[in-house]
Amino acid sequence: MGTSNDGTQQQTAYDISQQRAHNCLLVIGDSLCFYGPKGALPPSNEGIWPVKAARELGLKLELFAQAGWTTRHAWWELTRDLRVWEAIASAQTIVIAVGTMDSMQSPLPTALRENIRHIRPARLRRWVRTLYVKLQPKIAPHTPFTALPHHLTVDYLERIRTALTTVRPDVTLVVALPAQTYAETYGYAHPGRAGTSATIATWAAK
Predict the structure, then answer these.
(1) Which long-range contacts (CB under 8 A, 24 or more apart) does 15-23 make?
(2) CA-CA distance, 170 to 172, in Å (whole number)?
(3) What is the rounded CA–CA span in Å between residue 150 and residue 118?
(4) I need a surface site. Which of 4, 40, 188, 198 has the fewest CB within 10 A?
């Protein structure tokens, strides 16, 4: 329990957790959590792996995922979304499944690529986006850069681990390794996976 400025008692996240039934599987992930062979699926679809996992564990699913999310986006979601805070209090197991995008090769630094959407005027933005989409499959297999450098992936994972174990030291925390991808948009190459996977595995073993 904590005390506010006016002297009233306030509950902490851990106090709230103690009052909840821990019957939830919380998944924070990228598009691989909700995409099938033909595109995006609703979060209740029986074919996506978070739904299958929750069913096997006998837990309710709370899924927070967006296309393109990296471990940095997972950290932002964890610290900014009030719905995630509620889900943490009820979670029995938390899965962080965002490493795949970290390991994807990126011809442009992530900060520049993600800010294409903010270019004005709209005509210039469309031209830049069209050019980037055209060039990415040709450049991606040859660039040494990934969406997030290995040290940043581990840095954000450690922030997530520290935050979660501070408020829920009793929760089971699972971190997924990057999936192998074979996408036309990346020139059918994924050279960054091995390095990112090894870095995450080394961090998780400590």
Answers:
(1) 16/89, 17/88, 17/89, 17/90, 17/167, 17/168, 20/89, 20/90, 21/90, 22/90, 22/91, 22/92, 22/170, 22/171, 23/59, 23/60, 23/90, 23/92
(2) 7
(3) 27
(4) 4
Write phi, then psi, for 26 (nearest 5 degrees): -100, 125
Q: Which of 163, 6, 138, 139 is nearest to 74 (CA)?
A: 163
The SS3 of residue 59 is coil
Q: What is the pLDDT of residues 118-130, one digit of tens each?
A: 999 999 999 999 9
Closest Cα to residue 100, out of 169, 166, 190, 203? 190
Indicate the residue type of 205: A
Q: Are 193 and 177 in contact (CB under 8 A)?
A: no
Q: For residue range 142-169, what is the model confidence (pLDDT) as tens digits?
A: 998 999 999 999 999 999 999 999 999 9
Task: Determine how many CB atoms are found less than 10 A away from the CB of residue 108.
Answer: 17
Centroid of chain to Cα 197? 15
Task: Quote the tokens at residue 21.
Answer: 């039934």
SS3 45: coil
Cα 153 to its chain centre, rounded Å, is 11
β-strands 35-36, 39-40: how paired?
antiparallel
Relative orientation angle of helices 150-167 and 193-205, to the nearest 10 degrees = 40
Q: How would residue 1 be classed by pLDDT, with cut points 50, 70 and 90?
A: very low
